[in-house]
Write a structure and sequence with these properties.
Length: 235
């Protein structure tokens, strides 16, 4: 160690040349300039946006209100479309000089897609109209009866003649009287859906349909084997 313990001066020339040092300084200057330009552009953009918002705030508010209004009316339009095609089904028991039985009516613009049809007597499910008549002491083979079985998947369409008989007994008089006498023991339920898969359950004890979840269609009611044998086209 020389000069009273002081380190000798470092000669930068041993490490870099003048050209390398000059190029390095230029790079530093370029980097600083680039950072300044980026910062200035960012500030200019922010100031420009604020200036534009200050000058056009009324238009921004109006556009925002228009967007909200459009969303609201779009929702209302969809709601109106659903209500427009919602089917309405009701049941009733009728009796007159010509006979007695249950009928269903359908109204609304859209079809009712049958999901499930169920009939019970005293709370116990029956599988056919013949089974129901037998419980009331009515002989199906000697009774003049017309009936309909709403099958799952069937589309019930509203029409000018929207009333359809589910079961109608015309004769003999004793069969009609037995049906009238026992009609309050019968419960009919029909689950149906609209084209939008909104589903309801209708029964004879409810004033209005009850909104329900869509169920897997299943057959719980059909024609008896006796009726099939009697009306077979192979006979």
């Amino acid at each position: 160690m020389a000069d009273g313990g002081k380190d000798p001066p470092i000669d930068l020339k041993q490490f870099v040349t003048k050209d390398e040092l000059r190029e390095s300084l230029k790079n530093v200057v370029r980097r600083k300039e680039l950072e300044r330009l980026v910062t200035k552009e960012s500030l200019d953009n922010t100031r420009g946006l604020r200036k534009w918002l200050n000058a056009n705030w009324v238009g921004v508010v109006v556009a925002f209100i228009a967007l909200l209004t459009s969303i609201y009316w779009s929702s209302e339009t969809q709601k109106h479309a659903r209500l427009s095609v919602r089917p309405h089904i009701s049941f009733g028991f009728y009796a007159n000089a010509d006979g007695a039985g249950w009928a269903r009516t359908i109204s609304g613009l859209g079809p009712a897609i049958i999901n499930v049809f169920e009939v019970t007597v005293d709370g116990t499910p029956v599988q056919t109209w013949d089974e129901l008549m037998i419980k009331f002491g009515i002989n199906p083979s000697t009774t003049k009866a017309n009936f309909v079985i709403p099958t799952p998947g069937t589309h019930l369409l509203p029409s000018a003649t929207a009333t359809r008989w589910l079961l109608w007994i015309g004769s003999p008089l004793e069969a009609k009287a037995a049906l009238v006498k026992n009609s309050n023991r019968v419960q009919i339920k029909l689950a149906y859906c609209s084209l939008y898969d909104e589903c309801w359950e209708r029964s004879m004890t409810e004033l209005e349909p009850i909104r329900v979840a869509k169920r897997t269609p299943k057959v719980t009611f059909g024609a008896s084997q006796g009726w099939k044998d009697t009306h077979s086209i192979d006979k």
